[in-house]
Give the backbone structure.
Amino acid sequence: MVVLGAVALAVVASVWLRSGRDPDPAPGPPDAAVAAAAEQIPTFIELGSDRCTSCRAMIPVLEALRGSGCRLDVRFVDVWANPAEGERYGVRTIPTQVLLGPDGRELTRHTGFWSADAIAAAFATHGVPLAGATGPCTL
């Protein structure tokens, strides 16, 4: 009898707790790196600031990567404006670059200025050669 009462109490408590809640909310938009991984696209993440001299030197590199025709998700995160993102990636020095494979796993990271050619070589070293939609891309 005690067990039956405990089960009934648990059911009532469960119904009461759920009565004021909406069903599971729809998932929010995916993070760009997660979306790129779902599409099997490697990701380059630049973690820095637009007020950092070395970080500003990376702007032409980011533009070259974006304009190269490579199937590559290129992201810039201002860690001074978004410190939580800096913590998320364990940034200690800026600029820091993180390379993610098509599956979303971290391949490598680098600190300081990094040329577009060296970035492409780093992807290739980790078994992820950069390519365009129909063939090689130009850096």
